[in-house]
Design a protein that fits this description.
- This protein is of the alpha/beta class.
- It has 2 domains: 258 residues, Alpha/Beta hydrolase fold, catalytic domain (Rossmann fold), CATH 3.40.50; 114 residues, AhpD-like (Up-down Bundle).
- An 8-stranded mixed sheet has the order 1-2-4-3-5-6-7-8, sandwiched between helices.
- The longest helix has 30 residues.
Length: 391
């Protein structure tokens, strides 16, 4: 797995995009993992080097049994950049990630080329003691419903369960101790004095319907940072990088492209980097990294080919939603009796919105058109792959 030890903690990270391109570092919200940026990286990775990582205590990064401050999280990011040989970066953060970005800009002003602060605050002391105590005593399930109710507008949650479900699953998998430590870091921070010293170009993006960090909090940050720009997105709650991904991408790309002079590729096919971002988004960072590492010189051209074509041209085409593409892929793998590829795509299909009931209905239909023996094997493959989901 891509892990780097820095500032006395191991951080899980993903780095996608052209090697010599400007670096954009994404820092995640409390309660999420680097996958929350799955919609941003494909939109930028043709012209930017996109760095994502799991904040300490989250996801696959290390949990330490000691208090943590927002300054520590900023130092983690600085150490990660050091380890990767990155001198400067554009820093993008949401919620806790936005707090980390503010602290990074103040502690490392020469390294922050710009700041993008989404759904965040400079001062948010209330309620974190109770939340930290609850998860330590009862686990993440005790607060998951209350937290997700603040992350998305009710309309989005009702109509996009395929996007909400993976975040819920990852939230439940978090280590309560790591989450609680970050709650206490938010409780203890006050970034208001240091924000006045920020000089990096700053874009602030707020959700009009965000109950966790309302627009007034974002406006307060804007008044403290010289020449900061504030954008308010309609019909968006807290995790707006997911709920309003298209709008976020439009504002983020315009802001970065204006600063760097970069421009999205047009013509000439989809880049390897954009395809790689899609591939990691569907199949997972760990699987794709293993495939590339194990390819060797002989098979690497093949990896480039399938990444550009299958994952760039096809999976990157918005004409068919990812849920539909998962359905089509699984049906063809049953018909062709491709066990390895079927098993590879089953769990990603669930993340793309396919329910267990829909999966079963799909397999029953393949029996009619592909034959009973093929479907019989597919039912066995599902049971072997989705042991926990079917329990």
């Amino acid at each position: 797995m891509p892990l780097i030890r820095t500032n006395e903690v191991e951080l899980f990270y993903d780095l996608t995009g052209p090697e010599n391109a400007p670096v954009v570092a994404f820092s995640n919200s409390i309660g999420t993992t680097l996958e929350m940026w799955d919609r941003q990286v494909p939109a930028l990775s043709d012209r930017y080097r996109c760095l994502r990582y799991d904040t300490r205590g989250h996801g696959r990064s290390q949990v330490l049994d000691r208090p943590v401050t927002i300054g520590d999280l900023a130092d983690d990011l600085a150490g990660l950049l050091d380890a990767l040989g990155v001198e400067k970066a554009h820093i993008v953060g949401l919620s806790l990630g936005g707090m980390t970005a503010q602290a990074f800009g103040a502690r490392y002003p020469e390294r922050a080329q710009s700041l993008v602060l989404m759904a965040t605050s400079a001062y948010l002391p209330h309620g974190w003691d109770e939340r930290a105590a609850t998860v330590r005593a009862q686990g993440m399930a005790a607060i998951v419903d209350a937290v997700l109710a603040r992350w998305f507008t009710p309309a989005f949650a009702a109509t996009h369960p395929e996007q909400v479900a993976p975040l819920r699953e990852r939230f439940l998998q978090l280590n309560p101790r790591g989450y609680a430590a970050c709650c206490e870091a938010i409780r203890d921070m006050d970034l208001r004095p240091s924000n006045a010293a920020l000089r990096a170009p700053t874009l602030i993006i707020a959700g009009a319907d965000d109950p966790a960090t309302p627009v007034a909090m974002m406006e307060d940050i804007r008044t403290r940072i010289p020449q900061a720009e504030l954008v308010v997105l309609p019909r968006a709650a807290h995790i707006l990088a997911v709920e309003r991904a298209d709008l976020v991408n439009r504002h983020l790309a315009a802001f970065l492209d204006d600063l760097t002079g970069a421009a999205s590729r047009s013509g000439g096919g989809v880049s390897f980097e954009a395809g790689l971002a899609n591939r990691k988004s569907v199949l997972g960072v760990e699987h794709v990294e293993r495939s590339l590492q194990n390819a060797g010189a002989f098979a690497m051209p093949w990896q480039h080919f399938i990444t550009r074509t299958a994952w760039g041209e096809i999976w990157g085409d918005p004409t068919l939603p990812r849920k539909v593409r998962s359905f089509v892929t699984l049906a063809m793998m049953v018909a062709l009796h491709r066990e390895e590829e079927f098993k590879l795509h089953v769990r990603p299909a669930l993340r793309n919105g396919v329910t267990i009931e829909e999966l079963r209905a799909l397999l029953l239909q393949t029996a009619i058109y592909a034959g009973v023996p093929a479907t019989n094997a597919a039912f066995r493959w599902v049971k072997e792959t989705l042991t926990d989901e079917l329990a």
